[in-house]
Amino acid sequence: xxxxxxxxxxxxxxxxxxxxxxxxxxxxxxxxxxxxxxxxxxxxxxxxxxxxxxxxxxxxxxxxxxxxxxxxxxxxxxxxxxxxxxxxxxxxxxxxxxxxxxxxxxxxxxxxxxxxxxxxxxxxxxxxxxxxxxxxxxxxxxxxxxxxxxxxxxxxxxxxxxxxxxxxxxxxxxxxxxxxxx
Length: 182
Description:
By secondary structure, the protein is mostly helical. The protein folds into three domains: 3-83; 87-119, no CATH class; 121-182, no CATH class. It is built from four helices and four strands; from the N terminus they run ααββαββα. It has helices at residues 3-16, 22-84, 144-147, 170-181, and strands at 126-130, 137-141, 153-157, 164-169. The strands form two sheets. It has a two-stranded antiparallel ribbon with strand order 1-2. A two-stranded antiparallel ribbon has the order 3-4. It is rod-shaped, with a radius of gyration of 37 Å.
């Protein structure tokens, strides 16, 4: 029996009882009214609790989706870092020394400590190309093309869809240099 059925049973009992004193019947009726209100309040709380549980489950699912997406982004970022030859320590202070004691805030151009500013790509030209597949703008340094000395063809891939966005053929450059020397 649910609580509403039990309350109806109590009301029926109260109506079927003969009380000699009408005050006693009024007292029991008032007590049943209060119990009815308490039952309604508990029922409302149960409904709100169910809604809250559904909401929390929805948030949990969204959080799981976001974590999966972050894992995918992290893997893609690792792939891009690998392609670009970037190490994790490259994201720290560019001077290569411990700048925790100075005010450079990892901007060693304005550093007043004894560290020297070193930027491997300071004089390099940035090449920007648009991915033919997804339209993403892909940027890379021109010196990346020279770093793969053993490879005859260097391909730059889009980090978003892995399509080839730039192909560099070393043989063509070598032939052009030889023609220029002649």
